[in-house]
Amino acid sequence: xxxxxxxxEESATVRxxxxxxxxxxxxxxxxxxxxxxxxxxxxxxxxxxxxxxxxATKTSAQQVQEQLRRDxxxxxxxxxxxxxxxxxxxxxTSNDL
Length: 97
What we know:
Layout: E1 4-8, H1 12-22, E2 28-32, H2 38-44, E3 49-53, H3 61-70, E4 78-82, E5 90-93
Parallel strand pairs: 1-2, 1-3, 3-4
Antiparallel strand pairs: 4-5
């Protein structure tokens, strides 16, 4: 089975560019436009990595972190929060807690 990455980004253009860049890794990319959809996507199928843009949606990255931390079936999944010019990129894994 190919590794599965969930990508949360509101811009369809950015989602397409990131997916295209990751295509060479031979993995399945699941795209969602809202952070609040991350948990549903993760629960659908085993996920190897979550990429979330820090300011992508109304649901904050911290809320997604908390949801992952509270869910025993998801807390092992690495989460990378992507920043922009106003925010710095942060990497968080529930195992670090």
